Amino acid sequence: MKSFRNIVVYPSQELLRHLSGGAFFRGGPDWPFFRTQIYARHCWKLLPRPVDSRPYPSDHLVETADRGVWCGPVSNHFGHMIADFGMRIMASSQLDMATPLVFSLWDTAGAEPPPFFWQIIDHFAIDRRRIMLVRRPTGFRRLDVVPQAERRFGGGPSRRHLEAMDAIASPAPPGDGDIACAFVSRARWPMGRFAGESYFDQAFAAAGMAVFHPEKVDLQTQLQFYRRARRLIFSEGSAVHALQLMGHIDAEIVVLARRPRSHMAAASLRPRARSVRYIQASRGVIYGLTASGRPQEPSGVSVLHESSFIAGLRSIGVDITPYWDWQRYNERRDVEIAAWTAHRLVSQKHPGERAMIANRLKALSLQHLTP
Predict the structure, then answer these.
(1) DSSP 3-state assignment of 75?
(2) Could you report the per-residue pLDDT of 66-108, keeping only the tens digit for each?
(3) C-alpha distances out from residue 30 to 4, 47, 53, 120, 287, Å
(4) 20 to 30 Å CA-CA from 225: which of 61, 134, 237, 309?
């Protein structure tokens, strides 16, 4: 732990912007000698690389507080809340039982944390009354901070951290290990999924797998389900990060990568699970543009690489071919791409949106779907 005196903490000012266009996060504490405070800032990579920026100063200091422990901003994105901004919560809560845990929030009227934020707090058995949400610039006489337990893109958990997570994670349910194989689907998300993923659900269910949509249940139900499975096949996405709220997992983890060369959360998963494998199941992504004209790949739809998908599943002992009709899948894929495209064009934020989508379709040999 490090302690700082007379620190001003600001509400969230910028959150989840692309790094080339500014801070991944701006706001929170105005640390002294900000550029050198690697330990206290939000970092990625094996060797910590800061991805936040110094908050914009303000002359309107309207609140004061005696002491707190800085944990991070509140994010409305489940995966980022855990992987980027949730990796100080557990250790911070165990420094003592009373010091407020400090989070920055947007200062807009009516802003509140999403329900999953409070579910994360409950998961760590933290009294909700300890949570201090900074909505206006607040001066702290003393502000403590612990290092991130894990960092995206390379900073995995220590043995000590996993042992602590084992100790506080919810007990395994009575049916622990009773699910042989489960598919964690993103089929009900309008973006950031495989085109035609609803057909994945149908085929995997026919093959005898449990198909799970985590967004339909609360966090504790998600974690209990994961503990019941001996093999978990994830469609790459935020649900993978939920495993970072657990300690060791007696399961085989398989991730169907939606983006080429993606190995989401690999450094965090490998020390936890019995085994971790990534199947490069995508041959590319169809995406549009942000309002500033940058490619918006995370909001796109991925196109399945058929041979890699089948071969990857076979390599883990899953043969989906008896339950898979390629014509029906291609029809479902095309319908979902057309629906995604129509939605993007109705709500387009940049005049080059149509041309970008057309170029991506051509690159993936799907010209027949050009709008």
Answers:
(1) coil
(2) 999 999 999 999 999 999 999 999 999 999 999 999 999 998 8
(3) 11, 23, 10, 26, 36
(4) 309
